[in-house]
Specification:
Elements (H helix, E strand, L loop, with lengths): L7 E3 L2 E3 L3 E3 L15 H12 L4 E8 L11 E2 L6 H13 L3 E7 L12 E2 L13 E2 L2 H21 L3 E6 L4 H6 L14 H4 L1 H13 L3 E7 L10 H10 L5 E5 L17 H10 L4 E4 L5 H9 L5 E4 L1 H5 L3 H8 L17
Parallel strand pairs: 3-4, 3-13, 4-5, 4-6, 6-9, 7-8, 9-10, 10-11, 11-12, 12-13
Antiparallel strand pairs: 1-2
Helix pairs in contact: 1-2, 2-3, 3-6, 7-8
This protein binds flavin mononucleotide.
Length: 337
């Protein structure tokens, strides 16, 4: 029996399988952050290709919070219409639709002075950030809340908060980037306050399926470690999925990456919490994906680059695993011997 192709219900969302498209910035929007034909075709193709849940790329809660000026945006009500169409395209082809809501903080490459918890520069590609005041913090919290409200009204099944890869929430969490001396800095409890306040305010308006993406390690002695996250998840229980990635606070790491290199992080977090966990990172074959689930190291398998290479990965995988696929009748003849 395949676990990869068995359904799973999380909160109010039932996925037809455990295959998730990881969020990946496509740099195909425009300076206003609107959905383009590219997005409809790109995400629609992966939905036809049998993915259970498609999580849209980092979609910015503010114009200043974009990673680049070609990111999707959700900072105004005008963004809802395009996102709603995209959502409908994905859902119409049998997948659930998710969206990653993000703020780049100091890793914004758009014109202007980026915001961060402290005025610690990342590297020469970025400007020195402005240390956020309490009113900046309140403003960004409100931006996340509005982003979630808009995503829900566009019809997304899953909303993911980008807490990973060294972007704003991760900047608050990590002692490498957070040098504050007020209630948002210092102890892990204080560094997590920004994230917790965002999640709490979201939960006051949104009861649907909420995912948090984290970088479970900074790969630095002085940075965040998976044990910090285990501590964090003792008090952060108002999320439905934890998507476990790593890195990004320090960009110039010479990391040894290999098949499933982040799976042990996902597995460690899964063992310590009761919240469903997604594993990601060079999980490219159906056999490997299946083994991660069978060994109970994760509940969901996220694929990034492999789904760029192979939009129909899920259909092919179902045949390779010997499952009489009901994924997409139209494509069946291409896979039958
Ligand atoms: C082109 C590209 C864009 C990405 N953009 C995002 C993003 O918007 N948000 C995010 O959390 N991760 C992003 N990632 C990271 C992926 O979600 C994923 O974690 C990473 O590629 C590792 O998985 P893989 O080995 O299956 O590709 C991006 C990766 C790639 C290759």
């Amino acid at each position: 029996m395949s676990i990869l192709f068995s359904p799973i219900t999380i909160n109010d969302t039932t996925l037809k399988n455990r295959i998730v498209m990881a969020p990946m910035c496509m740099l195909k929007s425009d300076d206003e952050g609107f959905v383009k034909d590219f997005h409809l075709v790109h995400y629609g193709a992966r939905a036809i290709g049998g993915v259970g849940l498609i999580i849209l790329e980092a979609t910015s809660v503010s114009k200043e919070g974009r990673i680049s000026d070609l990111d999707l945006g959700i900072w105004s009500d005008e963004h809802i219409a395009g996102l709603k169409i995209l959502c409908g395209v994905i859902q119409g082809q049998g997948a659930k639709a998710g969206i990653q809501i993000a703020h780049a903080g100091r890793k914004s490459m758009v014109k202007g002075i980026p915001l961060s918890c402290s005025n610690v520069i990342d590297d020469s590609r970025y400007a020195t950030p402005k240390e956020m005041t309490q009113s900046d913090i309140d403003m960004v919290k409100e931006e996340f809340l509005n982003g979630v409200r808009r995503a829900a009204s566009a019809g997304f099944d899953v909303i993911e908060i980008h807490g990973a890869h060294g972007y704003l929430i991760n900047q608050f969490l990590s002692p490498i980037t957070n040098k504050r001396t007020d209630q948002y800095g210092g102890s892990l409890e204080n560094r997590a306050r920004f994230l917790k306040e965002i999640l709490e305010s979201i939960r006051s308006i949104y009861k649907g399926t909420l995912c948090l993406r984290i970088s479970a390690t900074d790969y630095k002695e002085e940075g965040l470690k998976v044990l910090d996250y285990i501590e964090l998840f003792k008090s952060v229980q108002n999320i439905d999925i934890i998507s476990v990635s790593s890195g990004g606070v320090i960009d110039d790491l010479d990391l040894d990456v290999f098949e499933g290199y982040q799976v042990p992080l996902a597995s460690t977090i899964k063992n310590a919490t009761s919240i469903p966990v997604g594993a990601v990172g060079m999980i490219n074959t159906p056999e490997f994906a299946e083994s991660i689930l069978k060994e109970n190291k994760a509940d969901l398998i996220l694929l990034g680059r492999e789904l760029i290479r192979s939009p129909n990965w899920s259909i092919k995988a179902s045949y390779e695993l010997g499952i009489e696929s009901s994924i997409n009748f139209a494509y069946k003849r291409a896979y039958l011997k």
